[in-house]
Specification:
Helices cover about 55% and strands about 0% of the residues. By secondary structure, the chain is mainly alpha-helical.
Amino acid sequence: MSSNIVPLISSGTAGPLGVLHLPRLWLKASLGAAGKLHSDYPAIGAGYDQMVLDGIGIAKGDFESFIADAKPSYIELENWVLQQKGGSLDQDAVDKLNAAITGYIHDDGTRGEILGAAGREDDGTVKDAVNLNNLDDWAIFHAAELK
C-alpha cells in the first residue's frame, strides 16, 4: 500500500455528537497534517468540510491548528469541539447541517464523471453527493491500492 491514504470514512457517517461528515473531516485533516493524505483530496476543502466547520461554528484555522498540534483521536476532537462551544452544540444547527449534507446533489457533469470513473452506468438512480462521493473514494482506493 502507498503512504498516501484514501479517506474511506463516508460523509454520511457521524460520531457520538451526531454531526455528519465530522469523522471524515477529522480523518482527512489528520492525514493531511501527517503528510499521508492521497493527493486527490484536500485536507480541508471548500465543500462538506467547510459546511461542517461553518455549521458547528469552528474557524478553519483553529481546527487546522488543533489537528496539527494535538494529533487528537476522534473522541478527543469531539471533546475539543464541545469545549470550543461551551459544552454543547446547537441541535437545530446540527440538524440543518446534516440535512444539507444528505440533501446535496452533484451537478450532472460531476455525477457522470464519478460514475464513469467507478465503472457504473448513469441510470439516474444515484444522485446524492454522499453516495457518489463514496463511489469516487472506492474507485480511487481501488486504482491506487489494488491495481
